[in-house]
Amino acid sequence: MKTMSSYCKKHSLAAAIALMISTPFANASDVTVSGFLSVGGGMVDEEYPANAQGVTPPNYKGYEEDFTFDNNLLGLQVTGTVSEKVTATAQLIARSADDYQVNSEWAYLTWQASDTVKVRAGRLRIPLYMYSDFIDVGYSYAWITPPPEVYFSPFNNVDGVDIYVSNTLGIFDATLQAYVGSFTDDFVQDGVVTNTKARNQIGVSGTIGKDWWTLRAAHHQSELTLDLSGVVLGPQLTLGGLAQYLTVIGFPENTQRLLAEEDDVTFTEIGINMDTGRFVAAAEYIEFDPGESMLSKNIRQYVMVGVRTGEWLFHVTASEAKDEVSRPEQGLPAGQPDPLFGNTSVIIGTLQAVARAQVVEREVMSLGTRWDVTTGTAIKFQYDDVDDEVGDQKVYSVALQTVF
């Protein structure tokens, strides 16, 4: 789970918005403010059992056996006109999971170079997924939240520059987006706050469609560094300590795999979205290749189909995570005496356990309804049947989502 960055933490949402709209260029005609809200909660039928080490895995979507309304989010987006072709945009979000501290998701300038080309610079949303640009705006899609088996990345932003082109290719509508940048932030890994750096980020995404269907594809790459040294593996043993020991006994290649330093990683996505007015469907397939790091290769996908009748939408989604385990122990000889662990086989087993802990294997079948109560407001109900390697769960959730 990603932690909040320190940006704007000391400001309330209202104060931060007031600060932005009081800038010299702002007046009633120069500034537009829009917002979105999601209030929701849920429960699981029973919690996951503790593993062999006595650790209880987190429940699906973080819910508990008692129903709680703790999946809430408020966002405001402010756009100000700087000049005829330049605008400034900021998006601030407060989440209940982060004690409603304010985080700046977007903060960028846009230059409208032509009717079909715009260039942006600042903090941008990485176009990883089909719903990346409005992933926090729950009202904009069928589910309460997109399937977490696919929409799992804790890194959604980039500080950099992008170019966005929208045009026609014959009878088809098409878009192309390319960006470069970098990002630094913290997220929680195995209970430890982990600093993450993505350098030399570069990516491209494109769509082509007509009328009721759109095809999408994207590819991204960067140099990823994760500070995992503080992850505890056992009494008086951390991941960093094990990595240092591997170097001491002459296996620096294994140290590199364990520490995930400046690893070349890639992320690839393909998707399709269809909406005839009565029938809807969507599907996405992604692969995250972590290079030489101990992270698993993520292979994820979902398929959703639904039907509208009046103000109601009924939908079913099948999603799957089937990751491939990494091999940080590769190259270590087995059965050799070792002064610290007694035998190198113990080191190999430890490395294999670390790698295995990164793997997610899960199948989820979801049934959901969306009721558009009025323009801009929807109430959603969802049931998830989860088949996970750590146990099975049934999850019940509800949300009120609106835009304004």
Q: What is the helix/strand order?
A: HEEEEEEEEEEEHHEEEEEEHEEE
| Total DSSP helices | 4
The strand line-up of the biggest sheet is: 1-2-3-4-5-6-7-8-9-12-13-14-15-18-19-20
User: Which structural class should the secondary elements be placed in?
Assistant: mainly beta
Radius of gyration: 23 Å
Helical percentage: under 10%
Number of strands: 20
Biggest sheet features? 16 strands, antiparallel, barrel
What coarse outline follows from CA principal-axis ratios? globular
Q: What oligomeric assembly is this protein in?
A: single chain
The residue-averaged pLDDT reads 90
The parts where pLDDT drops under 50 for at least 5 residues are 1-11, 14-26
Strand content: over 45%
What does this structure look like?
By secondary structure, the protein is mainly beta. The protein has helices at residues 13-21, 239-248, 252-259, 344-356, and strands spanning 31-44, 73-81, 86-95, 102-112, 117-125, 157-169, 172-189, 192-210, 213-226, 232-234, 237-238, 263-275, 279-289, 298-309, 312-322, 337-338, 342-343, 361-374, 377-388, 391-403. α2 packs antiparallel against α3 (252-259). It starts with 12 loop residues before the first helix and ends with a strand.
